Fold these 3 entries.
Entry 1:
Amino acid sequence: MRRKYSENDIKMMIELYKEGLSQQQVADKIGCSKGYVEKVLRINNIEGRCKAYYSKQFDDMTENEIIKDYYENNMSIRNLAKKYDCSTAPIVSMFKRRKLSFRDPSSYKTYSINSHYFDEIDTEKKAYMLGFLYADGANCSHKGHYVVSLTLQARDEHILKEFLKEIGSDSPITDFIKKETGVVYKRIQICNKRIIEMLEKYGVVPRKSLITTYPYWLRDDLTRHFLRGLFDGDGSIQSQFGYINFSGSNSLMTSVKEILEEKFNAHVREYNQTGKHPCFKQLFCSKKQDMANILYWLYEDSNIYLNRKYEQYITFKTQNDKYIISCYDNGLAI
């Protein structure tokens, strides 16, 4: 069966191509065919490059400018390619022809990070971050390159700042503009071999959206924090329609359903949305007391959450106080 690629995969294909990689290089990084990359670019109205892009010739003056930019202005090969409107290949070839040395990788700009942050998931914030990465994280690691990215709406930038603070990183938050709509998103990228290897061990793997399974190794007291991260990333509170929902892979949602039914005796409906991949499932809960129990458990006395989801919870709590009071009366453990 032909593999389905997520929206994050497609975004990454477009971004990598715009950064100067060839269609074949993009295909190698994503793990798909060159033809599929070509199709994605065509559908998204991304112009292909002519052959001159990969075999561009420079005059002596331009070559000297490139060399100055590289050594004196500390520009990377990739940024040079952008500036001089070519691929990295002719620039690398020019350096080799002139027998010029490349900078030691250790001289490149690096960002601080606590490489051992995810060695153990043993706190509320670590469990929450793992859940959020399960929902919205994109693992683009391939052939020795280690990177996990998280792209959110601009209004949710506070979560990205919290993530960077937690892992002790001064890495920048960059803008990502969706070409089709012009909407600006915010993105962080975690580029650290140790962290990526641990996240992969926990289930944040490339093309994870349809194969993710629940981390049953997680401590019971961290379950609600993990699920809050998952819910903040891929769930919703639809007060006007009277339901809450989770979404994700079949396996993950089956486990979440079992947890909610066992803990709250909640009535949880499964739904495979038309047009979605058959391995993708949504869970819906519309009984007011079930909604109150779940939301109270997820958000009450929590220390990290998506602000707009928390505000929705507060609105629900205000409008449905009798159901929330029942949570207190029943001694619902959080």
Entry 2:
Amino acid sequence: MARLPDGALMQRAAYGLAVHCGLLCSGGADRPGAGPEGRGGVGAGPAGGGRPGPDRRYGSRVTLLVGAGNNGGDALYAGALLARRGVRVTAVLLNPDRAHPGGLAALWAAGGRLVDAAAAGPAEAAVRTADLVLDGVVGIGGSGALRPAAARLAELAGESGAVRVAVDVPSGVDSDTGGVPGPAFGADVTVTFGCLKPGLLIGTGSVLAGRVELVDIGLLPYLPDPRLQVLSAAEVAAAVPVPGPDDDKYTRGVVGVAAGSARYTGAAVLATAAAAHGPAGMVRYVGGAAPLVRARLPEVVVSEGAPSQAGRVQAWVVGPGLGTDAGAAAVLTDALGSDVPVLVDADGITLLAARRDLLAGRRAPTVVTPHDREFARLVGAEPGADRLAAVRRAAAELGAVVLLKGHATLVARPDGTAYVDRAGSNWLATAGSGDVLSGMIGALLAAGVEPGLAAAAGAYLHGAAGTLAARTGMPTASDVLAVVPAAFAALPKR
């Protein structure tokens, strides 16, 4: 801000915001909420809401919910730009005496209309009749739930059928954690500035944010290296090893899978098959489902005995369907005693929770992939509202990479650097899906991908497979497995 003329950053933000709102009003942008997922992320806002915008921007009705401070200023300046293009703009002022003076003057000069939120009738009518409602109540500096007047207007916006757009972050959402302590604005689209905020990607905040659109306002050269990253398709593609002319099955990496039991044979097949579809050149299997694995996957080498007797591998996947008896505990102990990366999932996490000492002497990396209940068993507490802080604490405490499954999957290294995945699909909440994920990450580990990146890239590809599988109906884990090759193939070519 010291390097730019006064107000330059706000003008950049308002211009980007106005462009997105104008496209939504005119039908020039994808309809929010129309995607198959009905979840937050790129290209998929929350399911429901939103009457189709007019064919032309001219004459569209846009209502601004304006609080005090710069967030409201962004909304007011964007409203002024829209009003100059023929949009009928009404600003509902929640704090008239504290609204951004420059923004108020700009909107008034452009022909916008101002309404005091204390005049409940006109204020509510402005929301009910809008084609688009723009939330500029509070921004990243806000905390806590919306106050009653703002909460009522946010509720009406949700009922109105209008397209709902949040400025920078939905009001009532904690921009750092994604926590939502009470009433909040639910957006179809959030237009955020400069960089993505964690609260748009994690927890309930990721749901209320809808589709997230990032506007570059020139901050990138001044930002520190991120401690939380979102992988792009190009970054995932760059992480996945591609065999060269001199490679063979051994140089590409060998992944071992210790999974399955007489009771849970399917987990062994799912995890092993997913590993076979990854970038590693060979898969070895040990476990209680050997006959089925042999029959279903003739390319997999089935070994007898403990993991240490199976032959050389570059990474192990341990736990899916393994059971929790003494024999299963011995398998986990044996694998963690190796000098290669080990991914622990499912029953392996239950066993590890009782034997965390197995991690103490390990020099090779460990990756654990819990859902919330497994996380609680492993570290003694639920993740809570601040999932990012929880997964970072767990990674530091365990000395392992921790992948916390959920609506937004989080991956944290012991040093606190982390990834959040936005490619996921709600359809992945199905039995056996986690076994597929484990096999995919295991293959990446065996192929030599750094463990934190392997977990994040595996989560991305798993989510992409879930989305592909959902195109033909409600997918099972076997359906997700079937399209894993297509998920890899859909990555940008290098």
Entry 3:
Amino acid sequence: MSKTVNLELLQRRVQVLQQMVALLTVCCVGLAAFLWLFESRGNVRAAASESLRVKRLAVVDDKGTERIVIAAPLPDPVVQGERFKRNGAISGIAIYDPDGNERGEDGGTLFLFNGKHDGAVLTTHSQPTMEMVQNRKIIFKNPSDAPDVRD
């Protein structure tokens, strides 16, 4: 082979390599643009979401034990490791202890207050009690001889 043929062969190979580099560059730029558009559209969709529709939402701890469940309907409660049948289907929020038992078996308390220190307290702990509070003072309690709930 002469030097001229070798030079022409090398020039053709360089041209092919240049074309391949150009094609790969175009492909990389196109892929980057596609990924950028895909990602930005996904973010726009997520930001525009106004609602989330699920039948059940569970929050679990590090061990995978359900600690809070929001469901329609709620599962039957577990107390002391034993599952009990509810009187009827209910929807709402259940809070569980680290062992998976539904809390509230010994009673529960609900506090509803505004920024003016007015509100209501309902409890089932020592006995069912309702308090109405205005400006941090109890204005109604039933039963009247029940201990103050807010202590």
